[in-house]
Q: What sequence folds into this?
């Protein structure tokens, strides 16, 4: 469990029952096993077990937390305070891996920039030093007979493609 004990157990949020498009204001209390949800205007309580809840918003949503319960047409709970997930993880450590704290976009932007710079440096090192060293190592181990044979085949291919020089002056200079 985290050493930091500065967390809240109650949050205000909005609840959609999955049947009617009516937004209910609710007070959500975090417990070790689940969420106790109280509709404010009607004064009714109901329970969401943490094992039945899914976090449906992406981890970049830094304005609200969206939780769902159910499969086909889920019940939805929206908490405007993003510290909700941190408190939930502290109060219910058994479910820490199930819920994600939203990541700030600036953190991801910095990470992407640093990784881009690192990849450029790595590619440069490979291109300037590693590939030439590797090619030189391989070239030293190629038998001379292979090189001679390659040159002869190359010469045969190109000589057969082009006509022989017919001017005597040029032919003498070539030989």
A:
């Amino acid at each position: 469990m985290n050493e930091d004990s500065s967390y809240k157990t109650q949050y205000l949020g909005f609840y959609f029952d999955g049947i009617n498009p009516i937004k209910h204001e609710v007070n959500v209390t975090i417990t070790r096993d689940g969420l106790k949800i109280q509709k404010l205007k009607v004064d009714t309580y109901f329970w969401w077990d943490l094992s039945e809840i899914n976090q449906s918003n992406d981890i970049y949503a830094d304005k609200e937390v969206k939780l769902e319960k159910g499969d086909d047409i889920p019940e939805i709970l929206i908490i405007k305070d993003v510290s909700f997930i941190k408190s939930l993880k502290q109060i219910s450590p058994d479910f820490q891996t199930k819920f994600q704290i939203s990541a700030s976009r600036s953190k991801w932007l910095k990470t992407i920039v640093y990784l881009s710079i690192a990849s450029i440096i790595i590619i440069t090192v490979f291109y300037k030093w590693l590939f030439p060293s590797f090619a030189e190592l391989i070239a030293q181990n190629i038998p001379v007979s292979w090189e001679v044979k390659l040159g002869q085949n190359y010469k045969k291919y190109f000589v057969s493609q082009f006509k022989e020089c017919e001017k005597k002056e040029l032919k003498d200079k070539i030989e």
The mean pLDDT is 84. The first strand starts at residue 10 and ends at 16. Residues 10-102 form a domain with the PH-domain like fold (CATH 2.30.29.30).
